[in-house]
Amino acid sequence: EVQLVESGGSLVQPGGSLKLSCVASGFTFSNYWMDWVRQTPGKSLEWIGEINTDGSKTNYAPSIKDRFTISRDNAKSTLYLQMSNVKSDDTAIYYCTRIRVLTGDYWGQGVMVTVSS
Amino acid sequence: DIQMTQSPHSLSASLGETVSIECLASEGISNYLAWYQQKPGKSPQLLIYYASSLQDGVPSRFSGSGSGTQYSLKISNMQPEDEGVYYCQQGYKYPWTFGGGTKLELK
Question: Based on C-alpha coordinates, what's the Rg of chain B?
């Protein structure tokens, strides 16, 4: 069974940093591109970015570029999202997703990040 | 960015009714269109990919169609478990973008 489990969410002050993790199981992690998507409370979904299978290539949404970094450790089947210089607009539930046919076919349960002083 | 406009914003359907949700892209997306269902407190679940391909395990009463800039999701024979919010998403051009969502309720 495919499982994606995010962790690392918390309350963080504006301008601060936070690193989210997503541990994958039930499939060969190194064979799949992985994405991060966020959802603000009561609102729609926003694609953050993605990473290729070996971690050599990433793509990011303009809204977070240069502040967020996606990485992965295939030996640990773990995806990461390093968030820096966070803003109140970054308050959201963050999901990791497995990508197949340019689509997120499995999603984690999500982790809450709150940016507030 | 490609804008994805969903309609209607919300709708209610009776048991057994057929409903359709529309998604309009601001430019052609060559069928790189997915549909997701999200229930309260849960993560989105993939229903349809590449505009009309049914994800494994999804009931056949869900179907997708469309081309170019216009796409639709049809739910035949509405069931109580179909209540939720439905989102479309384009995977044609970065940044990938989602529609604003359509809330479906059982009448």
Answer: 13
Residue B1 CB coordination number (10 Å): 14
Tell which residue, A53, A108, A60, A102, has the closest CA to residue A83.
A60
Q: Within 13 Å, how many C-alpha atoms sit on residue B18's CB side?
A: 8
Chain A interface mutation, best of B3, B33, B46, B88, highest count of A Cβ atoms under 10 Å: B46
A19-75 confidence digits (pLDDT tens): 999 999 999 999 999 999 999 977 789 999 999 999 999 999 999 989 999 999 999
- Per-residue model confidence as pLDDT tens digits over B5-38: 999 999 999 999 999 999 999 999 999 999 999 9
Q: How many CB pairs under 8 A join A and B?
A: 57
Tell whether A61 lies on the interface with B, counting CB pairs under 8 A: yes
Answer yes or no: do B34 and A61 touch at CB < 8 A: no
CB-based contact B43 A105, cutoff 8 Å: no
Are A35 and A47 within 8 A, CB to CB? yes
Cβ–Cβ gap B99/A103 under 8 Å: no
